[in-house]
Design goal:
Layout (H helix, E strand, L loop, with lengths): L10 H12 L5 H17 L4 H7 L5 H24 L5 H14 L3 H7 L5 H11 L5 H7 L5 H11 L4 H9 L3 H11 L3
Length: about 190
């Protein structure tokens, strides 16, 4: 079996993949899985914490729904402040509130979907002006998950390169990978 779409990997990642496969230190499928992961990462950005926690079976859909309901109230109030500060016109605000009520779509998603602002800008403004808890903080405060489980999910969310992927998904020893990279002369 060959690595599919190896061109997605940067040159150092591709070289490391070949060395690990040639020395039977990792299966080809692990790299194909990483390539799929990297394509999603490049297309959509890092996965949402809620999706990660749900996939790890740490929380339920009901937990996410409850958080979303509470969070949506905060976001709706935030829309008012965006309008007052000139980030949105009255017309945009009214249209967003109407659409949100009709479709049930999260306010942040509507703003991003309509390209009023990017996800990053919206989140930064919301975090700087709102007192709402982030999902992880909310889950720990409610006793839904432990701080250790939250830390584990946050570490998973940080996976953005082959080395971290191998460590997290294959429980590969980071020191061994460091030695291999040193022998290869890559960073």
């Amino acid at each position: 079996m060959d690595i599919v779409n190896i061109e997605v990997l940067d040159p150092n990642e591709a070289a490391m993949a070949k060395v690990l496969i040639r020395n039977n230190l990792a299966p080809v499928q692990a790299f194909n899985d990483y390539i799929s992961f990297k394509k999603r990462l490049l297309k959509y950005g890092k996965p949402f914490l809620g999706d990660i926690l749900f996939a790890m079976d740490y929380i339920t859909k009901d937990d996410l729904d409850l958080f979303e309901d509470e969070s949506e109230k905060e976001h709706s109030g935030f829309i008012e402040s965006l309008c007052q500060k000139g980030f949105l016109t009255q017309e945009q605000r009214d249209d967003l509130l109407k659409q949100q009520k009709e479709t049930g779509t999260h306010m942040a998603a509507l703003i991003i979907e309509r390209q009023i602002m990017t996800k990053e800008i919206y989140n930064k403004l919301f975090q700087n002006s709102a007192i709402a808890l982030k999902l992880g903080e909310w889950l720990v405060a409610r006793g839904k998950i432990s701080a250790e489980k939250l830390d584990e999910a946050l570490e998973f969310q940080k996976v953005a390169n082959l080395e971290n992927y191998l460590v997290h998904h294959l429980k590969f020893n980071k020191e061994v990978l460091g030695k291999i990279k040193a022998k290869m002369g890559v960073e």
